[in-house]
Design goal:
Blueprint lengths: L9 E10 L2 E11 L3 E6 L6 H9 L6 E6 L2 E2 L5 H7 L1 E3 L12 H12 L14 H13 L15 H13 L5 E5 L7 H14 L4 E5 L3 H7 L2 E6 L2 E6 L1 H5 L2 H8 L3
Parallel strand pairs: 3-8, 3-9, 6-7, 7-8
Antiparallel strand pairs: 1-2, 1-4, 4-5, 9-10
Helix pairs in contact: 3-4, 3-5, 4-5
Length: 252
């Protein structure tokens, strides 16, 4: 696996999110490095998606801080956080099925590079955003599918497109929420290869339920139970951690 950079790109410290009297996430800290896939695992209701939503800016933190490249982004709204370099994918596909694969990606690039002064130019003809979209498709392994209707592709290819759309916004941090959900064996292999490639230039946080995949691709694993971290370490240490085995992995 590639060596992660020493300095973390994103540092989240003591994140807590309360919903009334419930602490969905309680005092969670994670740091993300370029060159590293940092997986977050836990049973349903452990707080994984709430954590991603706080990191991406979709829900505010109740307490704690989020630092990106040394700057405090804790209270930045999601659009500004995205423009600062944080991109994410979702559990459910969020593509435009009737548009081509390239057009889906171009729209994502356009959203990140708004040009309100270019009133005379059709957005679809903007050479910059088209070039960005094509590079993102190439990075995601979808160049050959550029002109296909997005809705005609397999489930796995749609998940790849979501990541390509994320890449088109030029993120440095990738927050990926269950990208392997619903995939067959061949699609899973393709996605794992993509994640290995993406971490070379990005800091990747991966929320995933497929434990075989997690232990293959992750450089570090954080385990959450009931909104709290019970362990965070390299995969071999997590696999042998007695608390993790009791709480989550069982006989895995």
């Amino acid at each position: 696996m590639d060596q992660a950079s020493d300095a973390p790109l994103l540092v989240a410290s003591g994140l807590t999110r309360r919903f009334g009297g419930l602490k969905a996430v309680n005092n969670v800290s994670v740091d993300l490095h370029v060159g590293e896939v940092h997986a977050v695992i836990g049973t349903n209701g452990a707080g994984k998606s709430t954590l991603i939503n706080m990191l991406s800016g979709e829900i505010p933190v109740s307490s704690g801080t989020i630092m990106l490249k040394g700057a405090d982004v804790t209270h930045l709204p999601q659009p500004k956080r995205a423009r600062s370099g944080i991109g994410r994918s979702y559990q459910r596909t969020t593509i435009f099925p009737s548009f081509t694969v390239l057009e889906n990606c171009r729209l994502a690039a356009q959203a990140a590079r708004q040009r309100p002064w270019a009133l005379w130019e059709a957005a679809a003809q903007c050479k910059e955003t088209v070039a960005v979209a094509r590079r993102a498709l190439d990075d995601a392994g979808l160049s050959d599918a550029a002109n296909l209707p997005a809705g005609s592709m397999s489930h796995g290819k749609k998940r790849q497109l979501e990541i390509a759309m994320c890449l088109a916004t030029a993120p440095q941090v990738l927050l990926l929420d269950e990208p392997l959900a619903g995939m067959g064996a061949e699609e899973t292999e393709r996605m794992l290869a993509l994640l290995e490639n993406l971490k070379r230039g990005h800091a990747v946080l991966l929320v995933e339920h497929d434990m075989d995949a997690v232990f293959r691709v992750a450089d570090r694993i954080t385990v959450m139970v009931n909104g709290e971290v019970i362990a965070s370490d390299v995969p071999a240490a997590i696999r042998s951690n007695a608390d993790v085995q009791v709480a989550y992995l069982g006989n895995h």
